[in-house]
Amino acid sequence: MITRTARLTLTSLIILSFYAPISFGKEPARVIAGWVEKVHIENQDYDLKAKLDTGAKTSSIYAINVKPFKKDGKRWAKFTLLLTDSRGNEHKLDLEKPRSRKANVKNHDGNHDTRYVVELDVCFNGRKFATEFTLADRNEYIYGVLLGRQFLKRAAIIDPDKTFLTAPSCQTPALQTK
To answer: Each residue of 47-68: pLDDT tens digit?
Structure first.
């Protein structure tokens, strides 16, 4: 006779097997990740804590001094990322990137903001992903980096009871694009 605990464990394993990292074709498998993970942004060598948020479509990052401009007839943005690493040290990273688009984003107080969107490289669990980020003032938030559904659908399935299940480094040179 199987005990209740054994039945629950077996049922859990069967359910998890459907979410196990299985890869078909060229796309690498998604991993199970916690709701907070460490990442690297733009080839920086320090870890950043990022919130993995299925409620947000587009990823977001703490940026100040966002200035749109034209370069060779194309839309660009100049900005400074304010990043706090996992040890509490603050870093400023000045960047210029092509603008992908503008996004209307509903913020935490219910109002809508229009934000510029740029593509940044994110190292997550040994892989590098080119990911769209809205440039936002995230001063009022705990995490300066938020990874949304567009990123998660390629990289991870979230276990909301866990944190820090993955490694932040990029071990492979292959770039995973949208």
So the answer is: 999 999 999 999 999 999 999 9
Q: What is the pLDDT of residue 169?
A: 82
Map out the domains of the chain with their CATH numbers.
Answer: 29-176 (2.40.70.10)
The whole-chain average pLDDT of the chain stands at 85
User: Could you give the CA distance from residue 102 to residue 137 in angstroms, rounded to a whole number?
Assistant: 15
- Does this model's pTM top 0.90? no
13 vs 57: CA distance, rounded Å: 29
**Assigned token pair, 40:** 């690297």
CA distance from start to end of the chain:
49
The C-alpha atoms of residue 128 and residue 121 are separated, in whole angstroms, by 6
Q: 112 versus 2: which is more confidently predicted?
A: 112
Distance CA 146, CA 131 (A): 11
Question: What string of DSSP letters covers 5-43?
Answer: HHHHHHHHHHHHHHHS----TTSPPPEEEESEEEEEETT
| φ and ψ of 101, to 5 deg | -175, 180
What's residue 22's pLDDT? 44
Contact in structure between 39 and 47 (CB atoms under 8 Å): yes
Report CA torsion sign: 38, 53, 157, 43.
negative
The token duo for 146 is 């938020």
